[in-house]
Amino acid sequence: MNKKNLILFGFIILKFILQYVLISPEYDLQRDEYLHLDQGKHLAWGYLSVPPVTSWFSHFILFLGNSVFWVKFFPALFGALTLLFVWKTIELLKGNLYALILGALCILFSCLLRINMLYQPNSFDILCWTILYYLLIQYLKSEDTKWLYFGAVIFAYGFLNKYNILFLLLGLIPAILLSKQRKIFAQKQFYFALILGLILIFPNLFWQYKNHFPIVHHMKELAETQLVNVDRIGFLKEQILFFIGGLLVIFAGLYAVLFYKPFKNYQLFFTSFFFTLIIFIYFKAKAYYAIGLYPIYIAFGAVFISEILNGGWKRFLKPVFILIPLLFFIPIYNIAFPNKSPEYIVAHSEKYQKLGMLRWEDGKDHHLPQDFADMLGWKELAKKTDSLYALLPNQKETIVLCDNYGQAGAINYYSKKGIKAVSFNADYVNWFDLNIQYKNLIRVKEFDENNEELKETSPYFESAAIGGRIDNKFAREYGTTIFVFTNAKININKRLEQEINEEKNYIIND
Fold it and tell me: Could you tell me the pTM of the whole model?
């Protein structure tokens, strides 16, 4: 193994180590992770909230044992591969060892450490953006049309992972049209590659059509409940924070693709950058949707900086650029990751609040960052549900019905009793087993001080009781209540079927 590969291997190993040590053991998995893991048990060409690729990885995780280690392994792997493709891009641009190390440090000590903590489509999305830009550079450098076909495949996988990759295409097309590279649209191989990409994504498009395009309902719901709280100025401020240690390198990359002669074939990357950001801003997208845009500019910037610092007194600045990502990581390490107890975060809430980390998607400030609060209380919920389930005489005829996908997924993941909880929320609405004639109901309800579940539901059962509550005051699910209803006086399945149909009709007609 040569020196370069040894250093690269060291960066990748460090990446994996950091992803595991940056999460304190007192935190559980995050609410979205449970849904994605359950999707692996119900393989399909689409889901209400995401395309199918994540479910494929979930199915493989299930095959490997479904442990937390493997759940955390895959986003760490995608982050490591992002670093690898930035490294390979720097090599492609003829960057020296200094450029490789600088680029790797800017990627390693960035927001990707936060993104790659969670098993969500975001990590693979950023990887696909990076690979697509890498393949475009390969094509612009060689004009070999095989890179167009590789690009079509990667775009298809990116699309089947997260529709967010369409923003890359929307930003890239006008940039190409305004550049001398517009000749690409005159090549028949471009259209063959386009057809290949369409063939690969067709099963998901057909699934969307067959299911009345639930993505439209999901996006409308997202816009009404979350994107409505997005501040466009805040969006731009957050862009600066994502790669703050590599900010100078990114700016250098933008300058280089426009003015640095060896990069004259890549000038379209300058306009593409701004077209893509403008589109994100116009649609009031969440700030982190744009993260995949930046790694490739770190590659451009690292090569350019390594060249301008090669001679004279400027060479003494080399250690400065190396130290900047490391120095910025120190305060980030102490605040941006769930490596501190909830009690510590609450006691130091002022510094978290100043950075806007306590602002949730509802537009309000809370005790903990939203992701952290979403990683608490789940084991407690599953344990209490298990203990109640174990007390019932006819467990197979008991349905565990939850208010949201996080509750259902967490119970399914941590349950020792083989519970298969469901919900009318998200994809769980499609996963009810109505072949079982249910007699008992364990109802998990989000906290509501005016909740009348006991009063409203108990007349339909011979007995009813409150079985427990989530006591972790730092959890987003704090106060979530578990109700137990036994020996139904009515046909539960008919009521369930009615509500399932109502929910599906709402999704179709909304």
Answer: 0.94
